Amino acid sequence: MYRYDDFDRQLVQERTEQFREQVKRRLAGDITEEQFRPLRLMNGVYLQLHAYMLRVAIPYGTLRADQLRQLGMIARKYDKGYGHFTTRQNIQYNWPKLDEIPDALLDLANVEMHAIQTSGNCIRNTTTDQYAGAAADEIEDPRPYCELIRQWSTFHPEFTYLPRKFKIAVTGSPNDRAAVKVHDIGLRMHQNDAGETGFEVIVGGGLGRTPFVGKTVRDFIGKNDLFSYLEAILRVYNRFGRRDNKYKARIKILVHELGVEEVRRLVEEEWEQIKDGSLRVGDEEIAHYIAQFAPPAFEDLSDDDADFERHKAENRGFFNWVRSNVVAHKQPGYAIANVSLKPIGGIPGDATDTQMELVADLSEKYSFGDVRVTHEQNLVLPHVKKADLFALWTALDAAGLGTANLGYVTDIISCPGLDYCALATARSIPLSQRISERFGDLERQHDIGELKIKISGCINACGHHHVGHIGILGLDKRGKEFYQITLGGDASQDASIGKIAGAGFSEAEVVDAIESLVTKYIEIRESGERFIDTYRRVGMDPFKEVLYGDR
Amino acid sequence: MSLQVVTANRLGDGLVVFLTAQGGWSENINDARVADGKDAAEAMLAEASAPELDVVIVGPYLIDVEQQDGGLVPTKYREVLRTKGPSVREDLGYQAV
């Protein structure tokens, strides 16, 4: 895994000390809140409903065991014993005190972590496939490119005051687990006709109040040229992106208003000027970063493990967990183990200090000290020997981390909503808990199959409701919470934006409404169809009918 | 008639506070000074927005409240949550005390 060099270390430490001075000056009254606010936001510090919130970057969702252990320690020392993993593969703390945050940032810096690029109108923390370097379906590990993007984008002087925030996601697999088509830039690794590996460049996707699936601005860019090409896109955006209206300032609006052909023309014109400059990255340098993410020392194993099969046959709970949470690994004899942070009736994405420490310990014992954070708010141990899965599951299950529901109806994405967030218009967590409880029966979940429910507590769509197979948007209607349902969204390689089913539902009605949709799906599905497949075949009408009847 | 109080977040720890009759800030909404009517509310917000308070609190604003048996209760659910804490973690926030 990537280790900081002296430059990284100095950069993060200097930033921490700068922020310490800024906090001191703010508390002494030397700078006003108006002056301080952009400074704290550049260090991941928000002011939420009940307290400050610190958002910590987890670059491309990869953590070492010592880093996750430190995140647990920080939850205990500066917060109230827990943290919340977000849809941006970050972690948020909900209760830190302002004068203690510089110390928390120092504790983070000591394990090569920080809160840079978690807020503000800069290029944010790059996200990727949580199975990077492990997935059987992967072309190449995308993280070396993510790390190069991080180095290019961190404190990039030209892109510190963009029209609006800018999010980049990368997938190294044709099966997109990083939702690249709904990012400002999505990069999909693939091979061209000459057999070279490069990226399709997708621009202008996004959620929020104006959702779009991104459009391909270039079908293939070689690895060496990727960074100059990104620079060209950012330059075009920085120059032409709207600054008159923050709701129209994202690149998706520029792509929508100019059209992708014109954006392509502008980008290519810019790129022509800079493509042979210093941002062209040579093979040797790329190889250096690939080496940083070299696979761990896998043992040469048979893919069949008799003990693993025996445990599955003997233990129903383990069998169920393997069925939903264990994914094929590229190395024979190994598997990818998903750790669900969605216990039935629990808070999606929350983990306690001791749970974080336990997963850190287990990763050292079973997964080369490697942990991943997913944009669906779960954790992953990416490299587990099949022979160790039973022991791993036993330890996870004892700590409330063994829920067998990955990809099922109870594996719900939910933003913090009005329980924490100052921008929210309705609560989202309690609704996710009630849906989880309603569908908690495991056999029923398995029968329903893959069903992605995503809940946002406001139009900003941090809960990705637009790309939920069933999306739920919480709104405020004359002081009361009510919930709008969208159907047919998809964040995968077949990305689509969900359509609003009709009038919203009250807090009391909405869980029944969701259940009626699921019941309808079960009734009309054809063999092998997931909810989204059935929806695509039959369209909105049958579902609308069960929601609204003659209304 | 509409009753209003001024709320804000405290600079040091970000916690929710309310402007009191004495011009201080309390964590308990029942300590809040209540303005009855638009003029009184605006005067109260102006007092809370004084530049010297920038080192005490952040973002003061008015909220509507009702006098109920148990004391002052905000009319908007968002503000009820701010007086209590997260509804999904009743062990945290003011409700836990």
List the helices and strands and how they pair.
The complex is a heterodimer of chains A (551) and B (97).
Chain A lengths: L5 H22 L5 H9 L3 E3 L4 E5 L5 E3 H14 L3 E4 L5 E3 L7 H9 L17 E2 L14 H11 L14 E4 L13 E7 L5 E7 L11 E8 L3 H15 L10 H8 L1 H15 L8 H10 L13 H9 L1 H10 E3 L5 E6 L10 E3 H14 L3 E4 L5 E7 L3 H10 L14 E2 L14 H10 L3 H7 L4 E4 L13 E8 L2 E8 L11 E2 L4 E2 L3 H15 L6 H8 L2 H8 L3
Parallel strand pairs in A: 6-7, 7-8, 16-17, 17-18
Antiparallel strand pairs in A: 1-2, 2-5, 3-14, 4-5, 4-13, 8-9, 9-10, 11-12, 12-15, 14-15, 18-19, 19-20, 19-21
Chain B lengths: L2 E8 L5 E4 L5 E2 L8 E2 L1 H11 L8 E12 L2 E4 L2 H8 L13
Antiparallel strand pairs in B: 1-2, 1-4, 1-5, 2-3, 5-6
**What share of the residues of chain B does DSSP label as strand, in percent?**
25-35%
Helix/strand class of chain B: alpha+beta
Q: Judging by the overall fold, what is the CATH architecture of the largest domain in chain A?
A: 2-Layer Sandwich
Percent range of helical residues of chain B = 10-25%
The secondary structure category of chain A is alpha+beta
CATH class of the largest domain in chain A: Alpha Beta
The CATH homologous superfamily of the largest domain in chain A corresponds to: Sulfite Reductase Hemoprotein, domain 1
**Largest β sheet strand count, sense and barrel closure of chain A:** 6 strands, mixed
**End-to-end separation of chain A:** 57 Å
What spatial form of chain A do the alpha-carbon principal axes imply?
globular
Largest interface: A-B, 30 and 25 residues
Query: Overall pLDDT of chain A, averaged?
Result: 97
| Amount of beta strand of chain A | 15-25%
The domain count of chain A comes to 4
Question: What share of residues of chain A is helical?
Answer: 25-40%
Q: Note the total helix count of chain B.
A: 2
Mean pLDDT of chain B: 96
Span between termini of chain B: 32 Å
CATH topology of the largest domain in chain A: Sulfite Reductase Hemoprotein, domain 1
User: How many beta-strand runs of chain B?
Assistant: 6
Pfam families (chain B): DUF2849 (PF11011)
Protein name (chain B): DUF2849 domain-containing protein
Organism (chain B): Thalassospira povalilytica
InterPro entries (chain A): NiRdtase/SiRdtase_haem-b_fer (IPR005117), Nit/Sulf_reduc_fer-like_dom_sf (IPR036136), NO2/SO3_Rdtase_4Fe4S_dom (IPR006067), NO2/SO3_Rdtase_4Fe4S_prot (IPR045169), NO2/SO3_Rdtase_4Fe4S_sf (IPR045854)
